[in-house]
C-alpha cells in the first residue's frame, strides 16, 4: 500500500473531456435523487416543533435547537434530526443526568423507542417522533456544534457546487463503507470539511476562507473557543470582492478533483487540512505527530472552531489503508473508465 501511495498519479484518460458532460449529468441526477424532498423537509421541521413542545413540559424555560446536516443543508434522504437541549440551570446535575431525566420523561409521555446513552462521549437520547416517524438524537448543552452548523450552512450558501459535491461524496462513502467512525473511518462532518478544503484550493477558488475575512461579523466564544468569521453571505461579493462564479468547473471536474487530491496530492505524513486558514498547516505546528491515547493523527482534519480536535483521530493503521485505497480506486476509475459513474458508486460488499 505504501509504495502505491508514494507513486505518481497515473496520466488522465484522454477521453475525460469527451465524457465530462455526460458524467456531470449523471452526477447531478444522482444529487437530485439524494436530496430530501420538500415533504421530508417539512417533516423535519414538524418533528423539531413536536420535540420542542414536549420538552417545554419538563423544562419550560429551556430551548431546543436543531443542528447538523438537516440545518446546513447537507442531509441525505432519511437523515435523523440532531437537536440540542439548552438548559440554563442544571441544578448541579451532569449532562448524563439530564439525558436520563429526559428519557424517563419522554417515556412517561408515551414516546416509544426511547434510548438513553448517558455514557456516550456526547450523552444523548435517541428516539423516534410518533407523529412524523423521524428519528431524533437529543444532546444537552452541547453548544459548539450550533456554531459549526451555522458555519457549514453559510459555506453551503456561497455556491451550489459545495452541496452537490458533499452529497455525492457522502453517498460514495456510504456505498464504499468508509463512513463509520466506530470502524475507524470518517464522519459525514469530516467529509464536509474535506470538500470545503478542496473547493477553497481550486484556481480560482470556489469558496473563500470565511474565518480569515474581515470584519468578523459573527463573533462568539463558546466554552473558551472563539467562533468568529465573516457571515454576511448576502453581501459577500459586494463587501469582499469574492465571486465563486469566476470558477467555471463542472461537478464532474470537481468530483474528479476531490478524489485526485485525496488519492495523490495530500501529504498524509506532514499536512493538516484547515478550512480555518483556507489551506494547510503542519502536524508539527499542531503537535499531532504522535498518537496520544486513542487519538491517532494519520489523516489530519482540523475542526474550524475546536482547533485542538482532529476529525481524523479515529482512523487507525488498518483503516487509513482502507481509506487511501478507496480514494485511489475512485481516482483511477474516473481517469481510466468510460463508464466510470456506475463503477465509482458500486456498493462494497465486505472487506477481507
Q: What's the overall average pLDDT, rounded?
A: 92
Largest sheet: 5 strands, mixed
Strand order of the largest sheet: 1-2-5-4-3
What would the principal axes of the Cα set say about the shape?
globular
Q: Determine Rg (CA atoms, Å).
A: 21 Å
How many DSSP-defined strands?
10
Give the helix tally.
13
Order of helices and strands: HHHEHEHEEEHHHEEHHEEHEHH
Distance between the termini: 15 Å
Low-confidence stretches: 1-6
Measured by DSSP, the beta-strand proportion falls in 5-15%
Task: Please give the share of residues in helix.
Answer: 40-55%
Structural classification? alpha+beta
Write the SSE topology:
Elements: H1 2-6, H2 16-34, H3 38-56, E1 63-67, H4 69-72, E2 81-86, H5 95-108, E3 115-117, E4 124-128, E5 135-140, H6 144-158, H7 160-175, H8 188-200, E6 218-222, E7 225-229, H9 236-240, H10 251-265, E8 271-274, E9 279-282, H11 283-286, E10 300-301, H12 317-336, H13 340-344
Parallel strand pairs: 2-5, 8-10
Antiparallel strand pairs: 1-2, 3-4, 4-5, 6-7, 8-9
Helix pairs in contact: 2-7, 6-7, 7-8, 8-10, 10-12
Description:
It is a single chain. The chain is an alpha+beta fold and 352 residues long. It is 44% helix and 13% strand. It contains 13 helices and ten strands. A five-stranded mixed sheet has the order 1-2-5-4-3, sandwiched between helices. A hairpin with a 2-residue loop joins strand 6 (218-222) and strand 7 (225-229). Helix 2 crosses helix 7 (160-175). The longest helix is centred in the last third of the chain and has 20 residues, at 317-336. It is globular, with a radius of gyration of 21 Å. Mean pLDDT is 92; it is low at 1-6.
